[in-house]
Every structure is written in structure tokens, then in C-alpha cells.
Amino acid sequence: MPNGLVKRPEELRDLLAYLVTGRSGNSLAARVGAVEATQFASAPSYSEGPTWRDGELFFCSEGLRRVARDGTVGQYLDIAPGATFLRADGRMLICDNKYKAILIMEPDGKLGVIADRYEGKPLRSLNDLTVDARGNVYWTDPVGSTVDNRTGNVFRVRPDGAVSKVAAGLAYPNGIEVDPAGEFIYLVESQTKKILRYLVPDNDSPLTNAEEFYNLGGSGGDGCAFDADGNLWVADFHRPETGSGRIVVLSPAADVLGYIAIPTKVVSNLNFGGPEFDEVFCTTGTPPGVFRAKVGVRGFRGHPGYEPKVLRTLDVTPQ
To answer: Is 114 a residue whose pLDDT tops 50?
Structure first.
């Protein structure tokens, strides 16, 4: 922890969390505190949305890029993705802003569209996505929204293809995830620096009664991912006091379990991967690319999803 007086409430909170978890012998806190992140891949520009699949890492940076098993990095698909999500059947869901659609990618790289319109109009923006236990796909639509202009939305597409707006009036809704129990949806609202939590609807209802799960302070958060025990790992975008980004680990009770420093100006998103699924891969800016940290904690592989209705296929060939 830095020396000197604690001047802001979030600094006091972080200090208390450090004293409780960093010195208490908590095994996860000790493990996270000893982790060192190293660069795994470079990229041509700001990077987002990492996903590990069968020994390869996919991420978003001037197209969908792939880190092959031999470590080579190259563009895989000529699209404009913002996030990716791997289903249990090996098919990848993608938020794409070239076709303004939720795409599903087969293991051979073929692309299908499962949502591209709402109330007869093209989708506006697609940032991040997740899947609940009923197979519904949720994605965030933040473009242009701020604290003073709360026009951000969350959308949902059911396996039968029905699209609905489930949350509105948000100040840059960003990362979104469903916990391993399938009980809550966690949403990073970047402009307010908050992580919001909603009960997952057991029918086709919208998201209601948002509660503040945690306030990150700093510059707010971006993407997030769960480990197998239900702890939430969050990309803490940029800390003004250090000039860099980091990863924050939060328990289901919103206790801080630890931090991982990332030697970059910003951290955008993260996911678990590696042969044992106990490594964290995070996408970054300045420098852009992907960093890797061997955390020794198993990640949550996500809810499996159901067979979606594919509206059409796209003539986009893997490179």
C-alpha cells in the first residue's frame, strides 16, 4: 500500500481491505498478492474481450485476433468485435459492431447472426455479453451514455430469437456476467464506477431492483469474470493514484480479496484460460495486447446455453 494519508473514501476502503485480507492468512488473498502479470501477446491497438478455446486465445483488436498454440498472433476474422463468450459446445458468441449483431462462430470459423434488430431497427452498439442458465444472451449497449446522459441499455435475446430491452437509463453499461449459481447478473456501470447486481429473471421480465454491489472508485471498471467459487474478478480500468490498471477480486459478499497489478495504463477485460483453466488473461491499452497471470484459481466456464435460432450466415472466411 502507498505511504501517506488516506484522503478519499475509496482509499480508506482499500486500506481496510488490505489489512483484513492481505494479512489475515486468507489463501486466495495471499495467492493473488503474489501473482505477477506478464505480456502474452501484442496488438496493433486497444484490445478487448479475451476468450480461451482449446489451447488458443481469441481477443478483439482491429478484427478478431487469435494467438495460436505456437504463440503466433494474427487476425482471424475481419469483423469489429467488442467481446467474446465461449459456450460449452465450443461455439463462440461475439458482440460485433461491423455487422451490428450478436454472432455465433462455429469451431471452423463460420459465422451466423442470432440478433441484429430490435423493434425493427438495427442495433445501436454492442459492447460485452454473457449467457444465463436458461440460454438467454445479454449484451450491453453503452454508446454515447454518460452520468448526465443516461441512455445506455442492456438487451437480451432468447434461444428462440426474441429480442427485448431489459434495462435502460444507464451511464455506460459495460462488462456483464452471470454468477455460477445463475442467481444474479452483475453489470459494470463505468461512468458511475459502480458494479450493479440484478436478480436473474425466471421468466421474460426485464431486469429490476438494481442494487449497488461495489463501487470501484478511480476511473471505474470495464469487463469482469467469475471464478468457479463465485468470486468476481474485475478489470479496474485505470487508477489515477498509480497511473496503471489492475484486477480486483471481490467475494460474493463484496469483500476485496486481492489485487493484481498490471503494468499497463488501462485494463479493459479479462477471462480465465490455460491448460488447467487457472490463468487469467486480460486485454489492455498502452501498451495494447494481452497480459497473462498464473493465479492458481479455477475459472467458471460459463453457463452452457441452448441451441440458438440463427437468422442468417455471413460470408466471412477465417484467415
So the answer is: yes
